[in-house]
Amino acid sequence: MNKHFLHISDYTAEELWDIMNLAKSVKNKFHERENYPHFKNKSLAMIFAKPSARTRVSFETGFEWMGGHALFLGPNDIGIGKREAIKDISRVFSRYNDMIMARLFEHEHIIELAKHSSIPIVNGLTDYNHPCQIMTDIFTVWEHLEDIDNIKIVYMGDGNNIVHSWLHLAMRFPLHFVCCCPKGYEPNKDTVENAKAAGISNIEISHNPADAVKEADMIYTDVWASMGQKEEAETREKIFMPFQVNKKLMNSTGKNTLFMHCLPAERNREVTDEVLEADYSIVFDQAENRLHIQNAIMIKLSESYGK
């Protein structure tokens, strides 16, 4: 196991399966409210340059359920990369804490944090990727479909950090992954090429929603304007409206297709209320599974450090 969890492709397929199998076990223990003091007398520093309800609640709840103490550090508590050098924060926190989770804007900041840290770093999101979310997503798909080899996952919307992490996963698990986005909003070209070059998955970039969703096992979407892009929201709404996930699109796949969203959702924008509340929507299974996957990731990291 790597000492940090920064990108999904830093891990082998076998290691990723180990995380998912552990998450399944830990989930059962959590539901039974079993005592699980893996992190007794340990502390987790949670650095939030970008705020998030789900990320904070899931990490804090999970770490404290496992016997540890989680500390929330918001943008006003720590000006990462502004008030203090990132390498200094990393080295100081390494002496105070047993693990760091960071949810940041710039991807280079998480890389620098890990470079200078002597404790595990968990990437809670950057502008480039969101590995905990996509590990959650494939775990949720596995729960519902059981066999995940070569399933067709169609992402509708902006080629953002969610897409980049799906592409990193496609370098390790055989998938048919389609990013269907407006022209000019494609994912990072190097990441797309790396995913194709891995030779494991079928990767497509599409600009035609009706064609893209044919035979899809899963349709996935996210907000059209992420944090830091809200000034573009009005412009983006006009450009992205043809990519809205609605009942007509879900009914056009030719299969019993499931719907996913990483939340929070802007209802009746990127997805209609009707789809979000449908029986085929598994968004709240996803939301719960963030807790269990993150617990499994933190356990595995602590074992790799021998702490």
Short overview:
The protein has a 5-stranded parallel sheet. Strands 2-1-3-4 form a 4-stranded parallel sheet, with helices on both faces. The chain starts with 12 loop residues before the first helix and ends with a helix. It is an alpha/beta fold and 307 residues long.
Q: Could you explain the architecture of this structure?
A:
The strands form two sheets. Strands 7-6-5-8-9 form a five-stranded parallel β-sheet. A four-stranded parallel β-sheet has the order 2-1-3-4, sandwiched between helices. With 307 residues, the protein is of the alpha/beta class. Helix 1 (13-31) packs across helix 12 and helix 5 (131-145) crosses helix 12. The chain is built from twelve helices and nine strands. It has helices at residues 13-31, 53-65, 86-96, 107-115, 131-145, 161-169, 189-197, 209-212, 233-240, 247-250, 273-276, 283-305, and strands at 43-48, 69-73, 99-103, 121-125, 152-156, 176-180, 202-206, 218-221, 258-261.
